[in-house]
């Protein structure tokens, strides 16, 4: 589910970048939202690793 959200957000970001440019407020906001999703995945992976004691 999270991977689908990430892919959709990534596509949205590229569309915005193509239309408005990479530094436009819309693109930057979308990029930050994508970062939040990616951070969620990283947090989950770190938590799973910590629980395994690796």
Helix proportion range? over 70%
Number of helices: 2
Number of domains: 1
Strand content bin: under 5%
Mean pLDDT: 95
Major β-sheet profile: none
- Write the CATH fold name: MYOD Basic-Helix-Loop-Helix Domain, subunit B
The rounded distance between the terminal residues' Cα atoms is 26 Å
Unreliable segments of 5+ consecutive residues: none
Q: Briefly, what CATH class? A: Few Secondary Structures
CATH superfamily: Helix-loop-helix DNA-binding domain
Report on this model:
- The chain is an all-alpha fold.
- It has a single domain (2-52), classed as Helix-loop-helix DNA-binding domain (MYOD Basic-Helix-Loop-Helix Domain, subunit B).
- It is built from 2 helices and no strands.
- It has helices spanning 2-20, 25-52.
- Helix 1 runs antiparallel to helix 2.
- The radius of gyration is 14 Å and the shape is elongated.
List descriptors:
mainly alpha, Spo0E-like_phosphatase, protein dimerization activity, Spo0E-like_sf, Spo0E-like, MYOD Basic-Helix-Loop-Helix Domain, subunit B, 54 residues, single chain, Spo0E like sporulation regulatory protein
């Amino acid at each position: 589910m999270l991977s689908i959200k990430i892919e959709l957000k990534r596509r949205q970001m590229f569309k915005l970048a193509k239309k408005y440019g990479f530094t436009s407020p819309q693109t930057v906001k979308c990029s930050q939202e994508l970062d939040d999703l990616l951070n969620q995945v990283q947090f989950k992976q770190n938590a799973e690793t910590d629980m395994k004691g690796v």
